[in-house]
Write a structure and sequence with these properties.
Blueprint: H1 2-8, H2 18-27, H3 32-44, E1 58-63, H4 71-80, E2 84-89, H5 96-99, H6 101-116
């Protein structure tokens, strides 16, 4: 697993230094059986038709360079949610909370404060 993860891990980030790949790969855990059970259910899991039913304020976050969840998918999700805000992180892949940590925290804090005030 670790050899494969070292090859795949950089795809999750916009920029990732080789030393960071090693550090993250060594920390990762992976259960093949869990993946085997989850993946088939994802093909059938589509709630797009019910997005308008979600009344809670929702913050949709995506990295510009995310190959797993493309910006277009995040835009469609945000468009389908009545009370959503879309935040695109221009210098991130799948993990904007790592690659643009300070901006991520600021956006989430601002969004939570606004949601608490009912905006």
């Amino acid at each position: 697993f670790h050899a494969a993860w070292r090859e795949i891990l950089p795809l999750y980030f916009h920029r990732l230094e080789p030393a960071e790949v090693e550090r993250l790969a060594d920390r990762g855990t992976y259960r093949l059986e869990t993946r085997r059970q989850i993946l088939p259910t994802l093909r059938e899991y589509d709630l797009n038709g019910r997005l308008a039913e979600i009344e809670a304020p929702t913050l949709v976050i995506v990295g510009r360079h995310d190959w797993i969840t493309a910006v277009g998918q995040a835009e469609a999700l945000a468009a389908g949610l009545p009370q959503s805000r879309l935040a695109v992180f221009e210098h991130s892949g799948h993990y904007p909370f790592v690659e643009e940590h300070e901006r991520f925290v600021a956006i989430v804090q601002e969004w939570v404060a606004n949601a608490a005030e009912g905006e």
